[in-house]
Amino acid sequence: MSFTIAIDGPAAAGKGTISRAVAAHFGLAHLDTGLLYRAVGRAVLGGADPVEAARSLRAETLEDPALRTPEVAEAASRVAVIAEVRAALVDFQRAFAARAGGAVLDGRDIGTVICPGAQVKLFVTASPEVRARRRFDELTDRGIGSDYAQVLEDVRARDARDAGRSAAPLKPAPDAVILDTTDLSIADAVARAVAVIAAARGSVR
Fold it and tell me: For the chain, which terminus, N or C, has the lower number of CB atoms within 10 Å?
């Protein structure tokens, strides 16, 4: 039986780190759905039509390291508000979620739109200030010059864009477990997520 774990949340809340960790812990496949939008955003930066780029997306494209740049992240946020882009990527995500053995998907609308029937739904969040600091530190570690105040402004702008879009706005699913990582270490956040998932897995056996 397929066991799907949906992990949603805003940028830099820790959902990607938690998703990779729980996927490894339980031996499940993992999909960072944000990479789908980053791939489309990068194509748009190169002059492609966003809807066509989404419809022609290939899995191997997601392995490109260039998808991790701030410019591509910004482009991804902008194409993600296009309903036709989101619709074009739905089948890709649902097929991944349905694979034998189970899967972990992280994004912004997994529990609400892509996999509303997921056995576990987590909504990972943190304060804008903490998320901006994490993103600033990440960029600094990668040698990308940035300004904390600007990063915080960008985080808040993206939050507003993600929560305010008409197509699949960012919000917790009604039955999602909220995991606030503002004051948690990575280890503690992962441990809490593992506990929630383990309890759910035990209840469906």
Answer: C
